[in-house]
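task queued by scheduler; priority normal; single chain, no ligands, no partner chains; default sampling; output format set to structure tokens
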Amino acid sequence: MAASPFFFNIWKECKDSSGRDSLSFAKRFRMKVFCSQKKEIPTVSARCMDDVYDALAKHLVPTAAVASNPNSKYILGLAGPPGAGKSTLASEVVQRVNKLWPQKASSFDSQVEPMDIAIVLPMDGFHLYRSQLDAMENPEEAHARRGAPWTFNPELLLTCLKDLREQGSVYVPSFDHGIGDPVEDDIFVSLQHKVVIVEGNYLLLEEGVWGDVSSFFDEKWFIDVDIGAVMERVVKRHISTGRPPDVARWRNTMTDPMQNL
């Protein structure tokens, strides 16, 4: 079945000229969720981001609850431009799924904390190592454009996803921003995890191995936001790490182009 868009429109409360509450559409954020299990296109209106997180979590919990195989995994790919809020959304939804999980809520032993059934798997851990960038034909360009699709290791990501599907558990790398390199086997997706949200910029690309990664997901979400606003946010993020403003803007243009998504 072809995927159909699953829209979450975000509304905000404001005051009209008479001081009364009114609703207006917040154009600064719109989320499209492409869900292969939906025959219709549902639309949910929310007054704040918390409502959106709640709706997405409630959408996922039944999928985990009906899994016939206790070790089965529902693997979701969350993509969007840099600065769109992927990490925040993934974290908030995972927290809510774990709170909503029926077995957790109905645990008979209050002395035992039930294990979480949802987890975030960031794409950041699949950056190429700096030593791998050093070995490229143009190391200077490779380091300057680190964060572009070709500075990641989608082959390793795909292997980890396949191992997770086949074995029910897997160790995956995280990324240490302090040292600027991945940390091997730092995140453990266990047999108890039923919902895995993989988040990253390029998970829905269709070129090369990225296309194999994209086709692997049970469900795909894409955060559709105003590209100008998020790119400015990314520039500020680069500046906050000590880069000069002109370098930050150049890096933003060269590394994070919207056409890559």
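post-processing summary
- The CA atoms of residues 126 and 157 lie 7 Å apart.
- The beta strands are 4-15, 21-35, 43-46, 74-79, 118-122, 170-176, 181-189, 195-199, 219-225.
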